[in-house]
Automatic annotation (TrEMBL), chain B:
Record-annotated ABC transporter domain positions: 8-256
Keywords from the named record: ATP-binding, Cell membrane, Membrane, Nucleotide-binding, Transport
Protein name: ABC transporter ATP-binding protein
InterPro entries: AAA+_ATPase (IPR003593), ABC_Ni/Peptide_Import (IPR050388), ABC_transporter-like_ATP-bd (IPR003439), ABC_transporter-like_CS (IPR017871), Oligopep_ABC_C (IPR013563), P-loop_NTPase (IPR027417)
Amino acid sequence: MTQAIHGTARERTAPDTVAPGEPPAAHSVMEAVNLAQSYEVARGMFAKSATVKAVAGISFRLAPRSTLAIVGESGSGKSTLARMLTMIERPGDGSLLLDDVDVAEADTATLRRYRGEVQMVFQNPYGSLNPRQTVGKAIEEPLLVNTSLSAAERRARALDMMARVGLRPEHHGRYPHMFSGGQRQRIAIARALVLRPKILVLDEPVSALDVSVRAQVLNLLVELQESLGVAYVFVSHDLGVVRHMADEVLVMYLGRGVEHGPRDAIFDAPKHPYTRALLSATPVADPESRRERIVLEGELPSPFNPPAGCPFNPRCPLVMDRCRVEMPPLERKGGQLVACWAAQ
Amino acid sequence: MKEPLLSIRNLTVSFDTARGPFKAVDGVDLDVAPGELVAIVGESGSGKSVAMLAVMGLLPWTATITADRLSFDGHDLLALAPRERRRIIGRDLAMIFQEPMSSLNPCFTVGFQIREAMKAHLDLSRAERQARAVELLELVGIPEPERRLRAFPHQLSGGMSQRVMIAMALACNPKLIIADEPTTALDVTIQAQILDLLLRLQKESGVGLVLITHDMGVVAETAQRVCVHYAGQQVEMQPTRGLFADPHHPYTAALLAALPERAKGRILPSIPGVVPGLADRPQGCLFSPRCRFATETCRRVPPPRMGSELGLALCHYPLVEGVPQNREIAA
Ligand SMILES: Nc1ncnc2c1ncn2[C@@H]1O[C@H](COP(=O)(O)OP(=O)(O)OP(=O)(O)O)[C@@H](O)[C@H]1O
Ligand SMILES: Nc1ncnc2c1ncn2[C@@H]1O[C@H](COP(=O)(O)OP(=O)(O)OP(=O)(O)O)[C@@H](O)[C@H]1O
Ligand code: SF4
Ligand SMILES: [Mg+2]
Ligand SMILES: [Mg+2]
């Protein structure tokens, strides 16, 4: 069942929960409305299974040709969100709108059509490629599955994409183990772009790469965005990279958005104490800058029983009584959306 | 400078491979004094881990290790009998490995593994070992230490197991700790806690630290001195401030320029190409195929080692304020 929900989408995202910098609903290539996902997890033989709210209500609008960065600690739900956006997993709740169609509830045929428009690049350039498949076959595979192009046409498209990501034609018949980490990430990017998606979801695409190779891959992504007009959802915990790549930034904590807005607002005037701690904990590559670091106590609480009230309250330096009982809404404060009782 | 704890001269490690010998480490020098933190940075595969594994005596038999000097705390590690060497390593010299999950044994509890580490080197009773294990977990900031000691490695988060690794490394009060990417797998907030811990140990108990990392931010904030490796060679060594302000080797300069934090525009000045392998190892400077300043001389003749005023750069035309020196004929 395909739903066209022109009006409802806009009603569901109330105007004051749209982050500054986000496009009107009609101009976004993707809109997420309160996306949520929970998992039942068995906890040993005698314990009852428990529910993990991996993602608990994420909303955003993605402008064409722009980059939305998702940042947050390990376990905050970034990959779960990425899997929902790429339709690898159907959302447990909420809507995912592409062309005003809610693919969260779409039937298989509709899903197949839209899957081609949203592709994914994974963190690990070693695990994400099949070792027994040549590079050329790996890049052509999405075309084989999703289009009716002839073998010759598929090959031509693959060679074109390979040239765009800086791979040579003779690489077509080689196997992944013959390539370095950076080259494998290029292969993964070529494979993800060969269907010409409108959106590329990149889950920690450069975390496994070292400085010089990372620079090559980031440059490639910038060039491809300019030449192909693709929009990126860029998951990363490296704030230096995020600052370089992002237009908009969404900071997640225990499955929720805690701060969301234009890059400069988030980096120059962070308002959520978690964002502030994250920025201050990020080492700066400048030995002359001696800063006070906010060192957070403790780790991300167990996702099985998140704390009552604000999920950040057990580690928060600004915690007040209200924070322990009442969940702060993600609302407009200054140039961004912030979920914090203490933020001005 | 204080008498160095660790002193390495001209360390070379080569591996026997099917395609012939491969020099993973090629002429590395390093001195580390008590209470000093020296960082080693460089391209992936440039021999950072292998050089330190050679010091620890942890390389497989396919490795051939040679050095003009390899001494630790007054002992000549090359001349020591294996037994004597094992006695020192593990007590006075400890290593934190790149991957915590693969260096903890999944079959034993955390407590068992920490107590075992002490058993071999410290003369303590069972109860004393248990008490010290609790104390160590407290020291590295693990809450409820008694309960955690009974946990198996898979029951801990990445940050926890990395802290357990550090606790194990500290168990015998080492004089020098070699930490190989100790925070790479961790979140920045946890990384900050662990770095603070290591720095506190270094300041309070005068432990020497060798920190291998890709994170130039971590280097800038923690290290006193930095060694830069490229393709097995040490291409530069400078005090941290000098290295960031005025890198002398073109590879160091290119590495710093490729950091997104230092970028001026959207396109980063990246280093073209890849590190040479066994098959395409250049005849002259190993960096010459990727160096913007390379000349015919660079491609033909291995570069000399500069003096310490030029960061011991291994280069024909070391940079000063970004300008190559010794080039009398302008190209
Ligand atoms: N398939 C699953 N079954 C059960 N629990 C899951 C599943 N996938 C994720 N989780 C849980 O959901 C939470 C969010 O996980 P997720 O992988 O999305 O986090 P992340 O932000 O991507 O973390 P990282 O930075 O470590 O990749 C975690 O507590 C995780 O254990
Ligand atoms: N046991 C071995 N046999 C053969 N070659 C090896 C062996 N161990 C390491 N090497 C090679 O030695 C070189 C140096 O490896 P090393 O692990 O020291 O690099 P590194 O600088 O630590 O890199 P990274 O930053 O990726 O950890 C690499 O080319 C590696 O493939
Ligand atoms: S020796 Fe030449 S090629 Fe090598 S780093 Fe120096 S200038 Fe570049
Ligand atoms: Mg993830
Ligand atoms: Mg290594």
